[in-house]
Description:
alpha/beta, Rossmann fold, seven-stranded parallel sheet, five-stranded parallel sheet, 14 strands
Amino acid sequence: xxxxxxTPMPASTPVPGSSPRSTSxxxxxxxxxxxNGMTVVxxxxxxxxxxxxxHIGDPIKYNPDTYVEFSTAFRVIRPSAEERERSAFIQAxxxxxxxxxxxIFRPFWGTGGEMGRWDAELIDLLxxxxxxxxxxxxxxxxxDTRLLGEKGIIYCNSGLAAAxxxxxxxxxxxxxxxxxxxxxxxxxxxxxxxxxxxxxIFQACHANATAVSHNPRNHNLGLIGMGNIGQHIAAKLxxxxxxxxxxxxxxxxxxxxxxxxxxxxxxxxxGDLLRVSDCVVLCTPASTDGKPLITxxxxxxxxxxxxxxNIARGSLVDEEALADALDSGxxxxxALDVHASEPSVNPRLLEMAGIEGKTPGRVMLTCHNAGGxxxxxxxxxxxxxxxxxxxxxxxxxxxxxxxxxLKKRG
Length: 410
């Protein structure tokens, strides 16, 4: 359940160099779009002595200076989108088309995943030369990190780069569960129709939302997971800002110094945390076995009338059980950024997000947006390159997630 420990983002150190892409030995120059919109063309070089990095996904967009350093140190091969389709990708691995590459580089969450889940079918075909797989994104349930580790491959995520954005979004969702923002916003939007019914909806929200709304201050915030994201949430919602009392559960207890800094109280069991929390935020990686963490049984342990927020993974929550808990009033309100069957949303939860019925607007639903900022994508790209440069340079990975499964190479 623990996430990588809090690590500062490394700085970029530009040096002269090049940026090859393609599967052929000689690479044409490619454009990289800088943050200011300028097109930077990096000249190509090729050296068979350089370690090979397999770049899956779109070209670099945000960190051209770091990419100069990166492509100077390594020979970067970027397969086409067609080659990244699963059947074609498998065939290319069987043919050893890209040689004995030493790293896999996926700098963007939206591209590079055309081959689907990284399971035994793909991992078993990787050359023994591969040492590191560095990818954008905080979640890593799409890759069998245990099997990668057992093959001697360090998997590095980029959750550190998304921590600020996800925590900010979580703050909004926590506030929503206390202040019924879906109800308030939808009622105002509906009222723009200027019909008698729309005006009644506006007036009903104005009159009745206050009776079920509360300030977050002095309520207990329960964090399931106290990694980078959990720590950011604790700092933002804790005593120094919103005045919530921070409680947490994690498989690894944090240091006394960090607990003191965040004003956080540790609970050894999930049940202990749930029973004292007025609002629970799920901010832990998906389980490796694919089973939900929030079930009918765990929801029954929640403090009656509490609130629930999920900015982790939809697979961690039994959504039908959550809908039942909301129906009964055992859970007062919820906010979900992630969903079990994305892009589909649970129809019962969707109905509870509306403004009709006895308890309107009790659920806030968003489209897996929590980490989605330009700054996050800049960090994904930078951190993925820095992880590869560190590992292939003989140093420790910055954000590894599977060291406990890593098999030492002979």
